[in-house]
């Protein structure tokens, strides 16, 4: 005996349960039943004749309630509103298992089965039946006119998208991803443009490249010197002032400044017209401005990473920590990844090439290869230290992701453990056990918590004395204080 089927339809205007009679065409839909699908798709009356009828409908009281239910359905959770509706809409007693509930999302079906004990099915026939119900929903749901579902879907879609952006748990990670990618591009771009400045200005003053090899610093010195023809007009005081500026750009090295000025007056470079210097000056100014922005962007990335993942930053450093988060896609993805994945993150091509060729020589490290720990280790110990470092990076990322406002004490202790392991490879000194290290880190964490509580109490007391509206401003003060710590 075939079972009767109840299907749950999550409309943007409310929840609906439709009843498909046992043995009807609607309960035996499949992708191969093209003729039956065309027949039932023609009109809502055809679907009704096939034994599909509305069992119950519960409209949402407001757009806010519709958004809340959409979020729960998207997460595969059974909301209290949906649970109460299903208890009312479905048969009170289940006799001999002669009916079952069809849902579109298997994850939501599992939640319904665990909470209500209802037999749930999600297969091809249910999906086709729900497609037909969705097609004729306006004709089958009470109080609906043509276009109501489409307008409700449009409004709910906009609200749902705004909600996902507003409450995106990766929104801080996104800033790190973008800043890290931009910083990587700027490192390459500024160096390439700086080399172009060296080549262009080098026709006029070729000896400067040997004294100031760094491209950005070369551009700054070139802007300070300008056209060499102007040096002949300077007096001793002017040359001394110019030498002081060049020495300041060269980190206070007066010998370099003296050699640069001497070579500038006796250079073998060609003369430069005023129009040529105007263009070189404009280009070098832009390169210097980009270098200054790169420095500012690096400071921003460091502050952002310290606020989002302080322990990972303390363990891996700024560049590698940001690149790991960027490569994983988010801090949450990095925290969910096993240590073996973190170890070879960034070396996917080499890994799949080794697996394809079955050579057995899979990569030992990816992005973490640039860590100072691996660079300092002996060649035969690099594989071991990379596994150990990836293990500690996994711990640090999980602490940062799942602990609220974590301090950097855990990252400091993890870094000490990696240093001890390096010393063990070199000297054989027994390192501290992980249990002892984490116990010390947790003790330091408790001290940080007590310090935060004292500062919070002082700030709260001062706010209460200052104005009666201090309670409204207190969360902002706490947030700022925690970010700074």
List the helices and strands and how they pair.
Elements: E1 4-11, E2 14-20, H1 34-42, H2 44-49, E3 52-59, H3 63-75, H4 80-89, E4 99-102, H5 106-116, E5 120-121, H6 124-135, H7 137-140, H8 148-166, H9 171-202, H10 208-211, H11 215-225, H12 236-249, H13 254-265, H14 274-308, H15 310-316, H16 318-328, H17 331-336, H18 339-343, H19 348-357, H20 372-376, H21 382-402, H22 409-427, H23 434-466, H24 470-484
Parallel strand pairs: 1-4, 4-5
Antiparallel strand pairs: 1-2, 2-3
The main sheet comes to: 5 strands, mixed
- Number of separate structural domains: 4
**First-to-last CA distance:** 68 Å
Order of helices and strands: EEHHEHHEHEHHHHHHHHHHHHHHHHHHH
CATH fold-type name of the largest domain: Nucleotidyltransferase, domain 5
The dominant shape is elongated
CATH architecture of the largest domain: 2-Layer Sandwich
CATH class of the largest domain: Alpha Beta
Strand content: 5-15%
Strand order of the largest sheet: 3-2-1-4-5
Unreliable stretches covering 5 or more consecutive residues: 465-485
Q: How many extended strands?
A: 5
Put simply, the count of helices is 24
Q: Taking Cα atoms only, what radius of gyration do you get, to the nearest Å?
A: 34 Å
The amount of helix comes to 55-70%
Structural class by SSE content: mainly alpha
Description:
The protein is mainly α and 485 residues long. It folds into four domains: 4-166, Nucleotidyltransferase, domain 5, CATH 3.30.420; 174-300, Helix Hairpins (Orthogonal Bundle); 309-432, Nop domain (Serum Albumin, Chain A, Domain 1), CATH 1.10.246.90; 446-485. Helices cover 67% and strands 6% of the residues. The protein has helices at 34-42, 44-49, 63-75, 80-89, 106-116, 124-135, 137-140, 148-166, 171-202, 208-211, 215-225, 236-249, 254-265, 274-308, 310-316, 318-328, 331-336, 339-343, 348-357, 372-376, 382-402, 409-427, 434-466, 470-484, and strands at residues 4-11, 14-20, 52-59, 99-102, 120-121. The chain has a five-stranded mixed beta sheet with strand order 3-2-1-4-5, with helices on both faces. A hairpin with a 2-residue loop joins strand 1 (4-11) and strand 2. Helix 9 packs across helix 11 (215-225), helix 9 (171-202) crosses helix 16 (318-328) and helix 15 (310-316) packs across helix 16 (318-328). The protein is elongated. The relative contact order is 0.06.
